[in-house]
Amino acid sequence: MKTKSIFSFLLIFLITLSCKNTNNVLDNNEKDYPCNINMENYDYSFGIEYDNQELYLTPGMQSDLNDEYFEEIKTIIGTPEYNISGILTICDWFKNNFTLENAGGGMIGKKTVNELYESKTFYGCHSAALVISSILREFGFPTVMIETASVEWAYDYYNGTTQSFLGHVMTEVYVLDQWILLDYNGTFVEDYDCTNPFISTTDNQGLFTYAKGKDIWDYGVRDPSDTHNMMINFSDNIGCFEDKFNSVDYEWEN
User: Fold this and answer.
1) Rounded distance, CA 229 to CA 120, Å?
2) % of residues, the chain, pLDDT over 90
3) Are the CB atoms for 28 and 22 separated by under 8 Å?
C-alpha cells in the first residue's frame, strides 16, 4: 500500500522548518548555482561495495550491538523471516519499545546503539536508523546507513532564506537478492536504485544522499557540526548535482 507520508519525522536542527506547498520546488530554480567540485570521478556509492553484501553484516564501532541485548530482542520477537515482512517486524518492535526525546539534532553522533538500547530512547532519525540497522544486521540482513539533505533546504540555505538544517537518515537493506530503502517508521522502497543519490519524496521536496556507512561514525559524524558541515558543502555546491534531481520517482510502501 502506498503511504501517504514518507516520514514520521524529518531531521530538524536548531529551529523548526515548515514544509512549503509547491508543485515541484526543484523546477523553480532558474539561476545558475555553483559547482566547485571535480565531478569527473565523483563516487555516488560513497565507497559502499554493493556486490559484497557480507561486508555489511559486520558492525561498525557505533553499531556493535551487545550480544545480551540481541538475545533479549530475539526472545521477544523470535527470528524474523528473511523478507520485507521480517524487516517490518523489527521496525514495529522498535516503534513499540523506544520513546522519542526530540533533541533538535543535538544528540547526533553522541550515543552508541548499546546506550540507546539501555535507555530505550531515540533522539531523531539518526539514532532510530542506528538502532534498526544494528538489529537487522544481527538477524542476518546486510545494512548501510545513508544521510541525506532536503534539496529544497539546500537551495534555501544557499539563498540565505533559512539558517536551520533539514534532512533525513535512512537504511539500505539487502534482502532477497536486492537492496531496498527503509525508513524507520516502516515505509520502504522496493524498486530502489542504491547508486542514485536522489530520493523522491511524497511532498515533492526530494532528498539527496551525501554520506553512507555502516553507521554514522563510519562516515565521520561524531557531532552535530559534522553533519552541518556536510550539508553546507552540498548546499554550497548544489549546481554540481542538479542533473540528478528528479531522476527517479519512487513508490513508497508500508
Assistant:
1) 29
2) 85
3) yes
What is the rounded CA–CA span in Å between residue 171 and residue 183? 6
The domain segmentation of the chain, as residue ranges, is 11-16+44-244
CB distance 206 to 244 below 8 Å: no
How many Cβ atoms are within 10 Å of 161's Cβ, its own excluded? 9
CATH number belonging to domain 11-16+44-244: 3.10.620.30
pLDDT one-digit tens code per residue, 97-152: 999 999 989 999 999 999 999 999 999 999 999 999 999 999 999 999 999 999 99
What's the grid cell of residue 139? 538477524
Q: Which three cell numbers stand for residue 54?
A: 557480507
CB 197 within 8 A of CB 44: yes
At residue 117, what are phi and psi to the nearest 5 degrees?
-65, -40
- Give 64-94 pLDDT, tens digit per residue: 999 999 999 999 999 999 999 999 999 999 9
DSSP-based helix, strand, coil % in the chain, nearest 5: 30, 15, 50
β-strand pairing of 165-175 with 143-150: antiparallel
Beta-carbon contacts of residue 2 (< 8 Å; ≥ 6 apart): 251, 252, 253
Q: Provide the pLDDT for residue 18.
A: 31
Helix ranges (DSSP H) in 139-199: 151-158
**Model-level pTM?**
0.90
Direct distance between the N- and C-terminal alpha carbons of the chain, in angstroms, rounded to an integer: 6
